[in-house]
């Protein structure tokens, strides 16, 4: 982790104030999402469940990006937990697959 050049390639950046880069997604976030997508097999074996989980994670990430884009403009911004909304979206898919 001390190799800044390597680690910076594992992080997704957004554009912030004054063209500075703001880390918005890290390798841990992507691993977290992959675990949720891979775990869908325990509630449904249909390919549609995988596709729906991926789409819901993408929707959650887009919502997060919009929220972060608005919050980052404030001087009191200290960070935002970027996995809560995608988790909520994919949990809806898990619930739907479990009860269907």
Description:
The chain is mainly α and 100 residues long. It has one domain (24-99). Helices cover 58% and strands 9% of the residues. It has 4 helices and 2 strands, in the order H-E-E-H-H-H. It has helices at residues 4-8, 27-38, 47-71, 84-99, and strands spanning 12-15, 21-25. The protein has a two-stranded antiparallel ribbon with strand order 1-2. Strand 1 (12-15) and strand 2 (21-25) form a beta hairpin. 16% of the residues are buried. The mean pLDDT is 77.
Write the layout of secondary structure elements.
Layout: H1 4-8, E1 12-15, E2 21-25, H2 27-38, H3 47-71, H4 84-99
Antiparallel strand pairs: 1-2
Helix pairs in contact: 2-3, 3-4
| Quaternary organization | single chain
Could you list the spans in which at least 5 consecutive residues all have pLDDT below 50?
none
CA-based shape: elongated
Distance between the termini: 44 Å
| Gyration radius, rounded | 16 Å
Question: What portion of residues belong to β-strands?
Answer: 5-15%
- Main β sheet profile: 2 strands, antiparallel
Give the topology string: H per helix, E per strand: HEEHHH
Number of strands: 2
Structural class: mainly alpha
**What is the total domain count?**
1
Descriptive key words:
single chain, 100 residues, mainly alpha, two-stranded antiparallel sheet, 2 strands
């Amino acid at each position: 982790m001390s190799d800044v050049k390597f680690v910076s390639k594992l992080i997704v950046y957004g554009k912030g104030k004054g063209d500075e880069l703001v880390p918005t997604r890290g390798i841990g976030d992507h691993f977290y999402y992959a675990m949720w997508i891979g775990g869908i097999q325990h509630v449904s074996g249909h390919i549609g469940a995988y596709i729906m989980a991926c789409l819901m994670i993408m929707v959650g990430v887009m919502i997060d990006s919009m929220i972060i884009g608005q919050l980052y403009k404030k001087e009191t911004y200290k960070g935002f937990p970027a996995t809560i909304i995608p988790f909520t979206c994919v949990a809806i898919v898990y619930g739907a697959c479990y009860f269907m």
